Amino acid sequence: MTELNEQYQDSSNLNIRIKIHERFSTNKEDWHMWLFDHYDVKPESKILELGCGDGTFWKKNGERFPKGCAITLSDFSSGMLADAQRRIGNLPNVTYQIVDIQQIPFDDHYFDVVIANHMLYHVPDRERALKEVRRVLKPGGIFYSSTIGKEHMGGFNDLLTRFDPTFGFDLTNVQADAFGLENGAEQLNHYFKHVKLTRFPGDLLIDDVQAICDYICSSGTNANKALSGKKREQFLGFLNHEKEKNGGFIKITKATGLFESK
């Protein structure tokens, strides 16, 4: 099993990363509610989400969608999809399906809206994936895809490097280099005539050093192994010193946004 598959075999690691934003964001507007506010969904729409995760977005926003929408929630991970189904429940207008974005098992021009949040940077063949999204969208349909920027959560890398320069972790920049705020429009423009980026404001002010350690360890097995045992205790001590030095908080820069493509 690859490290990516291990991370997303269920929603446990994802939940750790979601919670740090919910607890410590300087922008108190809920991310999932903000996303919905930027979606343009008409009544009776057919909607596909690729990489639905644990279904938190739909748990928070399901009742806000117009009447008559038919919603297909999909993920490449059966464990993640099972978590979403447990979280949301069996609703008459919602179906669950394991789907690989690189080979979407639906007819041409089938959906009014396709959503892929914080997942395109994981896709090995993004060109094929975006062709598939374009194919299954109806004429006039909309593709929503959120992602991160190169500065997003980079403060964690800085903390790790100052604690132990031999770690050599890069928790976010590789993802942003693949499909980020800085280069996402260029990739989307090959398949869509109109692409608009809206950024989500706010940073993190964290006063719980355990939350920082949990977040870093949730990013992959290498981080979890490196910060184990005595090393983890030393890292927590280092974080406490950093927190006290900076007035009781550790500030982490966020860079997140949403592409709307037509």
TrEMBL record:
GO molecular function terms attached to this record: S-adenosylmethionine-dependent methyltransferase activity
Keywords (A to Z) from UniProt: Methyltransferase, Transferase
A Pfam family matched in the record: Methyltransf_11
InterPro entries hit by this protein: Methyltransf_11, SAM-dependent_MTases_sf
Gene Ontology annotations of biological process type: methylation
Domain Methyltransferase type as annotated: residue spans: 48-144
Descriptive protein name: Methyltransferase domain-containing protein
Organism the protein comes from: Sporolactobacillus nakayamae
